[in-house]
Specification:
The complex is a heterodimer. By secondary structure, chain A is mainly beta. Chain A is built from one helix and eleven strands, in the order E-E-E-E-E-E-E-E-E-H-E-E. The chains are: A mainly beta, B mainly beta.
Chain lengths: 115, 111
């Protein structure tokens, strides 16, 4: 099945700086890579996603890049703000034949943006 | 549009008791998932389903069971509760390669 590794586990930045979170996956048939934000005590919510036919996607201050050859993808947050502080999870949806199309999450990154 | 509805929100169980966590979605999604999240940790997949009548084990299925008799409902059964099952449980649903919508979570404590 799919295995997703996420780094770093904690990240502290100053307001206005950029933050980068990286993930690797194991199933070469995986083709959908979402990122979720989870605020304390709340449910995870999708912030951006990318599919295997796209190398990069941007939505205002958030961007995701995908390198299918190397099997890794990254989340980039620019001009960070205190409200960006949360736990961020990457995920990969495995190939139907290899991982049963299940959505597997990384371990999460606790991002803290210091004012 | 309610999205994904989980019940109950909180529950305290005694060791050895059983219970069912309910999950219902009204978006006609094929895929449904059950995850558990221990404090400060990530989301571990317990069971998932790609359609009515089809279920499969995730990473941590031991001590749990599921059924998917309809597209809308995906209950999670805990048999013989153990302290190790103390966790927050999230149900989610999605289309293939689509956004997963999560329920509000069930905070379960086994004492």
């Amino acid at each position: 099945g799919e295995n997703v590794e996420q780094h770093p586990s904690t990240l502290s930045v100053q307001e206005g700086d950029s933050a980068v979170i990286k993930c690797t996956y194991s199933d070469s048939a995986s083709n959908y890579f979402p990122w979720y934000k989870q605020e304390l005590g709340k449910r995870p919510q999708l912030i951006i996603d990318i599919r295997s036919n796209v190398g990069e996607k941007k939505d205002q201050r958030i961007a995701v890049t995908l390198n299918k050859t190397a099997k890794h993808f990254s989340l980039h947050i620019t001009e960070t703000q205190p409200e960006d502080s949360a736990v961020y999870f990457c995920a990969a949806e495995g190939g139907k034949e290899t991982s049963g199309s299940r959505l597997t999450f990384g371990e999460g990154t606790q991002l803290t943006v210091n004012p | 549009n309610a999205g994904v509805t989980q019940t109950p929100k909180f529950r305290i169980l005694k060791i050895g008791q059983s219970m069912t966590l309910q999950c219902a979605q009204d978006m006609n999604h094929n895929y449904m998932y059950w995850y558990r999240q221990d404090p400060g940790m990530g989301l571990k997949l317990i069971y998932y389903s790609v359609g009515a009548g089809i279920t499969d084990k995730g990473e941590v299925p031991n001590g749990y069971n599921v059924s998917r008799s309809t597209t809308e409902d995906f209950p999670l059964r805990l048999e013989l509760a153990a302290p190790s099952q103390t966790s927050v449980y999230f149900c989610a649903s999605s289309w293939p390669q689509g956004e997963a919508f999560f329920g509000q979570g069930t905070r379960l404590t086994v004492v």
